[in-house]
Write a structure and sequence with these properties.
The protein has 204 residues and is mainly β. It folds into 3 domains: 77 residues, Roll (SH3 type barrels), CATH 2.30.30; 28 residues, no CATH class; 67 residues, PRC-barrel domain (SH3 type barrels), CATH 2.30.30. Helices cover 2% and strands 53% of the residues. It has 1 helix and 18 strands. The strands form 4 sheets. Strands 1, 13, 14, 15, 16, 17 and 18 form a 7-stranded mixed sheet that branches. Strands 2, 3, 4, 5, 6, 7 and 12 form a 7-stranded mixed sheet that branches. Strand 6 and strand 7 form a beta hairpin. The longest helix has 5 residues. The relative contact order is 0.17. This is Photosystem reaction center subunit H.
Length: 204
């Protein structure tokens, strides 16, 4: 059975509870092995959890079913850790935050210590986000990453991308062997735009 990790897919616990949406896929570039998925829920009280790939029962285009129950999700490691930076930091490294405190008839704005965010990733791992740019060998943007296909052992075999051809958008299967570089904001392939256009279409 095809295991497909699609960003935005609903993640359901073993007892049928909605745990959130898939927002990132964590893998080792050297082996193409997926180790975790990031499940995120909420807006103002946002929570992002690292779910081991071994906890995934099955993954389809619109739903990912887990082996664990909803009560166990809080026991998993947080993907992000946010903390205040002590002392002064270099300008441009972090964004200042402010809070509004009413004083008499006029509210006053007070600065908060700068915030920083770190990701709980093991050494050598990368987390791919939704909508990463696809670059051809000519370094032209030709589409956006949409989902990932895995084999039975949890290794990436293909990326599914939205490729623009002649003003139209198609879903194309890009073999992992064609990928020469993966960064946080883009994925580069060792193929020309013409070769990418000839790849087989992938239908939802």
């Amino acid at each position: 059975m095809e295991n497909r990790l699609r960003w935005g897919a609903k993640v359901i616990s073993a007892d049928g509870k909605n745990l959130g949406r898939l927002t990132r896929v964590v893998f080792h570039p050297s082996t193409n092995e997926v180790t975790h998925i990031v499940v995120e829920k909420g807006v103002f009280n946002r929570r992002a959890k690292l779910v081991p790939i071994g906890s995934v029962q099955f993954a389809a285009s619109d739903e990912i079913r887990l082996k664990i129950e909803a009560s166990q999700i809080n026991e998993l490691q947080d993907f992000e850790e946010t903390y205040f930076l002590p002392g002064e930091t270099l300008e441009g490294e972090v964004k200042p935050l402010y809070w509004l405190r009413p004083v008499g008839d006029y509210p006053e704005i007070y600065p908060l210590p700068p915030l920083a965010v770190s990701y709980n990733l093991s050494e050598g791992s990368q987390a791919i986000e939704s909508g990463v740019q696809i670059l051809s060998i000519e370094e032209h943007e030709i589409g956006r990453l949409r989902s990932v296909l895995l084999d039975e052992l949890g290794h990436i075999t293909h990326f599914i991308a939205e490729i623009k051809v002649g003003g139209k958008t198609y879903l194309k299967l890009i073999p992992i062997d064609w990928v020469s570089q993966i960064e946080e904001s883009f994925l580069k392939v060792s193929a020309s735009e013409t070769m990418l256009e000839k790849l087989p279409d992938k239908y939802d």
